[in-house]
Design a protein that fits this description.
By secondary structure, the protein is an alpha+beta fold. The protein has a domain at 53-142: Winged helix-like DNA-binding domain superfamily/Winged helix DNA-binding domain (Arc Repressor Mutant, subunit A). It contains 6 helices and 5 strands, in the order E-H-E-H-H-E-H-H-E-E-H. The protein has helices at residues 10-16, 53-65, 69-80, 88-95, 99-111, 130-142, and strands at 4-5, 23-24, 85-87, 115-120, 123-128. It has a 3-stranded antiparallel β-sheet. Helix 3 packs across helix 5 (99-111). The radius of gyration is 28 Å and the shape is elongated.
Length: 143
Amino acid sequence: MLLVLKTVDAVILHHRIDVCQCVWQTVAMTSATPIAADASKGCCTPAGPALSGQEAARTATVFKAMGDPTRVRLLSLIAAGQEGEACVCDLTDPVGLSQGTVSHHLRILAEAGLVVREQRGKWAYYSVVRPALDAAAAALRAF
């Protein structure tokens, strides 16, 4: 709702109505100035090429996987591990979750292409896929 006041004492106004909730108008509006737009041209032209449908879906999958704080923490822990990899057994304590829950989060990261899994005996080791992280960063910079 827009409140337009024309003749009100400013002192009274200040005490009764918050200044942010009031529009002070001292001169009546005469007419609106029409803005003419060329219909043959768009309102603006894109600065660069937009993502295709497939690229948008892929990017959304990556960002959805990184939309959970636990998964972001797991990515950070893996990247900080020796030689850029970590065993599932070393990831459960830092995030305070069970091995099954950590494996679930790692599976989602793997499906998004952010980590790769390597089985060594009974333990799974994960490493970060740097090009996938670089592509996600590039997608953010493109906006």
